[in-house]
Amino acid sequence: MATDAPPPPTADPASEDRAALRDGLGVGVAVGISGFAFGVTAAGSGLSAAQACAMSLLIFTGASQFALAGAVAAGGGPFAAAAGAFFLGVRNALYGLRLAPMLRLPRALRPLAAQWVIDETTVVTIARSTRRAQRIAFVVTGLTLYVCWNVTTLVGVLGAEAIGDTAAWGLDAAGPAVFLALVGPMLTGTVERATAAVAVVLVLGTLPVLPAGTPVLVAALAAPLVLALHGRRTRGRARDDAAERADARRAEGGA
Amino acid sequence: MNTWLAIGLTFAGCYAVKLLGLSVPAGALERPLVRRLAALLPVALLAALTAQQTFADGTSPALDARAAGLAAAGAALLLRAPFLVVVAAAVVVTAAARAVAG
Questions:
Q1: Domain limits, chain B
Q2: How far is it, in rounded angstroms, from Cα B10 to Cα A69?
Q3: Closest approach of A141 to chain B, Cα-based (Å)
Q4: Between the CA of residue A155 and those of A25, A126, A159, what are the distances in Å?
Q5: Residue B47 to residues A32, A100, A223, B35, B94, Cα–Cα distance (Å)
Q6: Cβ B59–A207 below 8 Å, yes or no?
Q7: Among A163, A43, A61, which residue's Cα sits nearest to residue B17?
């Protein structure tokens, strides 16, 4: 795995440390202030300031927080709401797998560090090539983002409560816009686009007939569904190719 | 809904998977299928959440000012606007569409 490779001999340790610090602060502040959008959305979804702040402090993974706020607004049971938010957080396990061999954290520190294992800390950390710089990147990004995200959540939720009717200000569009901004850059290939399209059809199709909270979970099935269909097609194509090659060989042999 | 229960469950689940990733031996979850599924699951969920929160009012389909806001967000996204600008575009256009519609 690339993550276990020794740092390239050309990497200057001091400049690696500076890059880790600079990128960590930059990403931490830029993404951290989006907590404002979460605070506003949480208030519009009917969450109290205490609930919004508890979510940013404890859950601390953006997409899951927006999903849970949306599920609360839509109604339905707490288990279905939590399930949708949880599935969105599962990817963080894979980030932890990539970070563990880089950071080599002592066992006692892992429960603390775990809270910061998210998209942004992973991206900034894996860009560095020395262990020292990777540790600096992880801590600086994590700490900056955590502080900014929580402070702006509080500002957002109090601000939205102060202006009252958030829908009149169009603030109910902030949630879906956040999801769109998150999913847009992921739609890089046919499989991703097909998955998104199937998920949209599934959620809008089941919305009128299923209990609140469950249509999003049904839509999550688009991922294994498209993956299975895609796998079957590529396997089928590989078989066809192999058969064609065999035919070609036979034809050559016969000639 | 018991909102605090939902928050507690989400916290427990999300924290557990974060800690799991840091704690299991490398390679345990590195199967190609697991990786592809974990990468594709957010695509399905985020697309579904976008559609649900734009085109639904409770449990019934709806087409209102939010659709205009989302179109503006999409345009901002194509222009590679920063995250908060994308969100602001949706908010401003949705509010404007509501104001015009009365």
A1: 1-25, 26-101
A2: 11
A3: 16
A4: 20, 32, 6
A5: 23, 30, 11, 19, 19
A6: yes
A7: A61
The C-alpha angle A186, A192, A196, rounded to 5 degrees, equals 95
Stated as kind and residue range, the H or E segment containing A155 is helix A131-163
Interface of B with A in 58-77 (CB under 8 A): 58-61, 65-66, 69-70, 73-74, 77
Chain A neighbours among B 15-34 (CB < 8 Å)? 15, 17-24, 26, 28-30, 33
**3-class secondary structure, B61:** strand
ipTM of the complex as predicted: 0.90
Q: Which amino acid is at B49?
A: L
Q: How confident is the model at residue A10 (pLDDT cuts 50, 70, 90)?
A: low
A207: nearest Cα among B54, B100, B94: B54
Q: At what angle do helices A13-32 and A119-126 cross, to 10 degrees?
A: 160
For chain A, how big is the Rg over CA atoms in Å? 23
β-sheet bridge partners, residue B56: B61
* Most A-contacting residue of B2, B18, B31 (CB-CB within 10 A), to test interface: B18
The verdict on pTM exceeding 0.90 is no
First to last CA, chain A: 47
**How many residues appear in chain B?**
102
pLDDT digits (tens, 9 = 90+) for A150-180: 999 999 999 999 988 878 888 889 889 988 9
